[in-house]
Amino acid sequence: xxxxxxxxxxxxxxxxxxxxxxxxxxxxxxxxxxxxxxxxxxxxxxxxxxxxxxxxxxxxxxxxxxxxxxxxxxxxxxxxxxxxxxxxxxxxxxxxxxxxxxxxxxxxxxxxxxxxxxxxxxxxxxxxxxxxxxxxxxxxxxxxxxxxxxxxxxxxxxxxxxxxxxxxx
Length: 169
Prior knowledge:
Blueprint: E1 7-13, E2 20-25, E3 28-35, E4 42-47, E5 50-57, E6 63-68, E7 76-79, E8 85-89, E9 95-102, E10 107-111, E11 117-123, E12 130-136, H1 144-168
């Protein structure tokens, strides 16, 4: 009996930029994400040949906008909650929930509606080059690439907010 092992992706910063990330599957580049500038809340991501734009908007009710391939109409708008949770409705009409499961180890997981893990993130905020690990538990879900991008964008947004609050205090 063979147990399905999760696919492991490494997230590394690119040389010359602290806000540009590459997703590696083994030695092969799986995708890229880079922020438009240093203080920007918008990022461009390329994964499996598809281009996505993620942007954080709103002041009193912040949300994340996801656009596909230079589209003018957002593919989805997700409320950016301060309770570290996010809900996403996939293309197959299933609802997925993203939440932090361990604050000490900085671990985040996308769960399906049956509370099974789909994608798990382990962020390494203190590392300069090796920024995190992604474990893909369910590869057969059609929106797994979008969940990887949304999850990493959310983690980086929360980390930027934490740095900003720490700088003020």
